[in-house]
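Appendix B, Record 12. Input sequence as logged:
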Amino acid sequence: MHIQNFKTLSGDNIDSISCENGIITSIGQKIDNDAQSFDAKGLLLAPGIIDLGVFSTDKPAFKFGGITRAILMPDQKPVHDDPATIKYAASKGKPDFWVHPLAAATKNLEGTHLAEIALMKDAGAVGVATGHDNIIASETMLRVMEYCAALDMPLFVHSEDIGLTRNSVATEGETATILGLSNAPALSEVMSISSDMYLAEEADVHIHYRQVTTARGLDLIREAKARGLKVTCGITPAHLFLSETAIHGFRTFARLSPPLRSEEDRLACIAAVADGTIDVIASGHDPRAAEEKRLPFSEATPGMAGAETLLALSLNLVRDGHITIKRLFDLLAYNPAKIIGINAGSIEVDKEADLILIDTDAPWQVDDMIMPGKAANTPFDGLPVQGRVRHIMKGGKIIY
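Logged structural output:
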């Protein structure tokens, strides 16, 4: 397959890209007239999005959003804490979509007994995760980290100090006070990041903070990177474009974990994307049924459907001048691939030919009534956005 007449992320004048046997074989070389070709008609060619840390395999949502690979959290039913569940998860999307599962750090994600991490790596796990919660016991966390370091596997952690956040549903501040919601200080994230960072330094493990959402937490990440620690971190569009005021009216679609933060923290997160502190933007895709969300705020399940809106929302960072389009796809594809160690995420010879073609200016409106995924619990319902994926190529073959 040969692709021609496309725009590039860097703006370079490249005539064509050729793919064979699922791999990019040449860039910019003249196309044989007899070869099968695809006219991209001026669309932007980008690597397929690698969504780092989803909670559900949701192929319709992923296809709509241009996601070609999903890194699946172990918080499933049953929990992915043994080789059989890992192997099954890794096979679910093929051949047109790849799921890369993360292994549960502890049995049933209960934070006490270590799971069989080595066996799960052999079964296809690309990393280890603590799940929706963190591991409370420092001794257990250190053992998990040492195990991951020995196996050369990244550890994905959730950063909230449960001693501060227990039973809370919002961030401490004016909004939570007005609504009368149980709340916890944003310091809970800082405490958790700090504790895990000292343990990670001791174990010499690659630690990935799945969501860092506060200014003080991001300062800790900067300091760790400056000291040369193996630290990366991510964020979702919700914490980049919404603040705690979005929960006014007890909007349960805006009940998230971690909860939405102050406007000052939100702006600090955008600055951290711009200066390179944040490595990944992920959807945090966690589709929830209506009966889990149409409840009193404190009883509703946290989480949002994010796969369909990940690209369109993230493109706002480019339009607003915070980052370049190339940097955006470092956040969406290149860095996620590097963190989990797969041969994808960029447009280079000998890389997997997972590609998307995007109409970056195409207008549409987020509508929870017609979202294609398993559920439509998005806090961005009704928002006008721009940017639509027109074609997806998996292994050099058009699948969407």
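The chain is about 30% helix and 20% strand.
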